Amino acid sequence: MENHKPDDTIKENLIGIIARKINQLPETDRNLLEHGSAYIGLNAAFCGLIANSLFRRILHVTEARIAAGLPMALIPFLSANASYTSFVSLPLSTGDLNCETCTMTRAGLIGLVFGGLYPAFLAIPVNGALAARYQSTLLPEKGNILTYWIRISKPVFRKMLFPLLLQTVFAAYLGSRQYKLLIKALQLPEQGLEIH
Prior knowledge:
It is a single chain. By secondary structure, the chain is an all-alpha fold. It is built from six helices and no strands. It is 81% helix and 0% strand. The longest helix is centred in the middle third of the chain and has 35 residues, at 100-134. The two termini are 38 Å apart.
């Protein structure tokens, strides 16, 4: 006899029911449920490219555009996509996340942290290393490093405020939309069952 707990079989049945119900949705709704995390990732990639561009201008870095732009788009895309999938999409589709407010809060926080702040903070070492390598701007002495980067980063983060807010609101909206689509799917009648 297998070593399954009764809760495991209930959970497996629930996941199977949710998957069948999602497959009954129209294709556009199903695509939003399945690929919503990619939209968050794309917005994170754009935030990374915006932050990269702002830091490049401040530090007067003109070389290595592709070498700096590629990781600033790819790393935020992958991290935001993976985190949104694991913290919002997957718990929704397995029944572990069943509160609209919780879904919106999780999605908004992931949009803010992984979609906005992480790309902006990632741009600091990438462009700082390029500025040091190509000597495009005068970098500080050893004692003034932290105050230098705070002073350099303040105007960038002021300009990044709108993309950060946009990413947060978009992620929260997407989480709310995915939750409503899942509720809509669960209210659909089971295929193959006839009620007399």
